[in-house]
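Thread title: Can someone regenerate the structure for this chain?

I was given the following input by a collaborator and told the matching structure tokens would be attached. They weren't. Posting the sequence so someone can regenerate them.
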Amino acid sequence: MATSFGSGAMTNSIHEITNDAQLMLLIGTNTTEAHPIIGYKMRQAKRRGAKLIVVDPRRIDLAEEADYWLRIKPGTDIPFLNGLMHIIIKEDLYDKAFVESRTENFEALAETVKNYTPDYVSRLTGIPADDLYAVARLYATTDRAMTFYTLGITEHICGTHNVMSVANLAMLTGHLGRPGTGVNPIRGQNNVQGACDMGALPNVYSGYQPVINAPARKKFEEAWGVSLPDNVGLMIPQMFDKANSGQVKAMYILGENPVLTDPNSNHIRSGLAKLEFLVVQELFLTETAEYADVILPAASFAETDGTFTSTERRVQRVRKAIEPLPGQANWQTLMAMSAKMGYPLEYNSPEEIWMEMAALSPSMAGITYERLEEKGIQWPCQSYDHPGTACMHAGSFTRGKGLFQAIDHIPPHEVPDEEYPFLLSTGRVLQHYNVTTPYSTGIQSMWSEEFSEFNPADAAKLGVETGDQLKVASRRGEITTRIKVTDRVPPGMLWMSFHYAASPANLITSDGLDPITKTGEYKVAAVRIEKI
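Best answer:
Regenerated them for you:
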């Protein structure tokens, strides 16, 4: 997701976790299960002596090792962050030199957070006031603190404002622009960073150049020999809204399975069913591919040459292990499609495609395949003699001075009530590491069905125990799931993964969206639970 830091990429580098960080603040990230390599490095840093603060409603694995585990109520991240800043400003612990020289709009921030007293924030978040004081003081007085977040911050209707609040806290304390600091979102899927960098977003070309920027648009028009629209395109939820209303009549889906992965999946299914024409290019007959008029074979990563870009902005070469089983790589299929539609593409290799993109994108202009043979390079890298950027914002921010945003609490789209008294939250399990389809027998053998987490107090009231099945219903549908009774989750919450077609969590997740990014509120939904 696009943020005030440009791309949603980490401002700093992964190696700084073990080499430089004195404190790690984790909010909305179950790192050891969703990003196990980075999670392991966090454990190494903790053993080296770095402090660890975990902010999560679940007792995730890293909570067991944390100096402070703050069990926050889902949907209250902004009050929590404002509460920390309230204490830091009131106790005069903020970095005055950084604030004065590198930021603006501090007065508006201070005016807003003064209302978020520790007692008020404690009532909203469920975090004891003493812990708020301790964590605020520790974060502010530590020289090098890295902040990490993932989908637990962004998958809310206020996800964009959550990210801005994280940035506010980092700027207030001067934890930016130096090794061992920074705002570090860990990207949710392999090469999602690279896809965004290449312009796979409706509002930018490659290198995050806005489509509404006339000089940028003219540059791409001249390179491609076409006239380009000057308006922002549709986000995925908007595509399905318009498919349901009949305004979008055709889709081409490459390597995505929105029926299983997108929120309110009945809405997704009805939109696909109403399309006049659907092409799905895939490795398997997914739940989405079942709706297709035409299915094209896709090549996997192991059959593909090109680049992946990691969460730390590092562009790396990928080399095919075998020849593409469909007979051609995905880029060749797309070229053939384009030619049939009247626009011939004449690339001979992924390297040619990269070099054209780099020539049009200042942040990656200095990255070549020849340089990548030696090692990966982190953008921004503007010239062939530039080494790449391990730590962003060292001297100034992209916009010049960092802009504090005065942000108030934004409640979730949907909260538990008498009819739907439980809170549903979703996430990932390590065994299925980002996989959302049932096509790997090896993975299925390790964790073959959903075991949703349910608190012992709630289980006792319903008369259920581990292994029993529950019916879980929301305003959008109902599913069944087996449960694991555990105090990893607080009373009143059911936690599910989204990996299983037999228990499709996204059938019942909230239809609330962040109005800016159109990201679904996967982390908070109201449900009713019954014993089967």
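The longest helix spans residues 77-90.
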